[in-house]
Amino acid sequence: MEKKTASGIMLTLLVTSMLTLTFNIQPAKGEPTTWTVDDDGPADFHTIQEAINAANPGDTIYVHSGTYYEHLIIRKNNLTFVGEEKSNTKIDGSLTGETVVIGADSISFKGFTIWNNDFGIVLGYWYPLYYSSHYSTISENIITNSLRSGILLLGSYNNVISNNVITDNGGHGVGLCVQSSRNEISNNTVSNNGHSGIRLDPLTKNNKVCGNTFVDNTYGINVYAASENIIYRNNLINNAYQVYSYDSLNIWDDGYPSGGNYWSDYGERYPSAQELDDSGIWDTPYVIDGNNKDNYPLMEPWSPTPETVRVSVLIDYGNGTRTLHADVTLPAGSPVLNATLAVARVDYISYGELGVFVDAINDVWNSYPYWWIWWYWDPVESTWMLGPVASNQYALSNGEIIAWYYESIEIWPLPQPPWTPIEPVVTATADIDPDTLNLRSKGRWITAYVQLPEGYSAADINATTILLNGTISPILDPKYGFVTNSSEYLVDHDNDGTLERMVKFDRATLASWIYQSAGMQYDVSLTITGELLDGTPFEGTDTISAFWTGKRSPCKR
Fold first, then answer.
1. Nearest to 244 by CA among 208, 198, 185
2. Closest C-alpha to 95, from 33, 146, 44, 137
């Protein structure tokens, strides 16, 4: 009897153990998947919505260039959408309904043109059920030709809307509605919208609207019964009504000396205003209404402060030996001394507020009457200028050329360095598409857009001199229209009114270079160099994201 009881107990334990094991077996969590979409080529899917339906949280949906006639509904959290090239990866809403509806959290959506919409991109929706979107990022898109709003937030919070071009929409460029709060709207160019550049509806609060350019809209900023928002470092240019505020109380500047917003009509409204302490800020507030004013309006349009500068350092030892250190990269605001320390051994003595006195460079010491004297090149006057202050007190600008000259101080005024520096490299703006590159993609081209600074013309770029990272030449075969037809290679890609020079590179060649030179890193810096027709060199750098599987917000204080 005892044996039977013991056997029964053991059997029960065994069965229980097996059942417990069975119910605790869980499928191994799969790695995130990158799904590809191409409307007319080989890919996982031919429509974006099919990829959404197949995707799981954490997946990426990579969409090749093409035109997709779809209305997307996104109801799965934590998905990343990447368009191959924003100007050529288009979602066409056929002027009906919402083209992209996001009713999920932690969505990243970048690199698309959303056009021919009723509404362009909507975060949150109400019918037939209520959904919102939080912690999502909408960036680097073009949203245009909407009958109503370009981007609309409904009851959604903690989202970032940044670096988009939002233009030619019938209603608002960006609309925040239904208590949408704690969102950041930054670095967007919002232009020529039929109603407002941005509209804040009742009870939307704690939003940051920073670093945007609102130009040629009916209303630049339109605030209706919405308070506790902070709005600064924006450019309001030639809007029919720069701002409208009703029953609202908001903050319109970031204090002194950070400043407020740039208003293109400021001089007309306040003709007697003066600059405040050489700060670039007007001394008279821009009054919006009885409850709102910009206390520290900016004198010039706001633009992001570069995080780095590139300079050239020339060292002349006074005996015929000269060295040039070109393209020295330093944090913005760095002084001459730091640039010199980056390329040479420097011995110096500090005299407090008077600055430092350089005693030696690379072990060549001052020995009366020969001292180290620093100069900077004035490109306007085409001459050397004696350093006006100590080398640790002169902040360098991007592209500047400085020289250290070991010379006799017995002659006064001191003779200029007896040579002319090489022509400074023109700093260009490079935009390389796609912003995100699937190295296993079978696409054909990489497209680059080169924009030159004011005073130079993209039409003067000699395409035969262009190189990508010093090794890859562009496509120059005249059988392609984008090589021979100026209407195809001179374009205003970023819609800022300035033409860029467009060139294309072979995708497979670049992918091979990234694999061999940059390895498996995700962010890859690509530099385009070349010359103008007169031989002037230019250079521009862009960073793209690369993967193998199948910027600093202006609101930061």
1. 198
2. 146
* Contact assessment for residue 259 and residue 281, using Cβ atoms and an 8 Å cutoff: yes
Band (pLDDT 50/70/90 cuts) for residue 502 is very high
Secondary structure of the chain: what % helix, strand, coil (to 5)?
Answer: 10, 40, 50
pLDDT surpasses 50 at 15: no
133 contacts 124 by C-beta, under 8 angstroms: yes
Q: Do 297 and 282 form a contact (C-beta atoms < 8 A)?
A: yes
Rounded Cα–Cα distance for residues 326 and 323 (Å): 10
Give the pLDDT confidence score for residue 423 in this predicted structure: 58
Apex 484 CA angle, 483 and 485, nearest 5: 105
Indicate if 285 and 343 belong to the same structural domain.
Answer: no
Let me know if residue 28 belongs to a domain: no
Q: Which of 232, 238, 245 is nearest to 281 (CA)?
A: 232
Domain range spanning residue 529?
Answer: 426-547
> Tell me, what's the pLDDT at 7?
40
Q: Choose among 510, 508, 433, 484: nearest CA to 88.
A: 433
CA distances 154 to 112, 131, 195, Å, are: 21, 9, 18
- Run of H or E including 338: helix 336-341
H/E element, 550: none
State the chain's mean pLDDT as an integer: 87
| Number of domains the chain contains | 4
Size (the chain), residues: 557
Distance set, CA 380 to CA 383, 385, 524 (Å): 8, 11, 36
**Using one digit for the tens of pLDDT, what is the confidence trace for 431-469?**
998 887 776 666 688 999 999 988 788 888 999 999 998
Q: What is the DSSP letter of 384?
A: E
Residues 336 and 278 reside in one and the same domain: no
- Domain assignment present for residue 535? The answer is yes
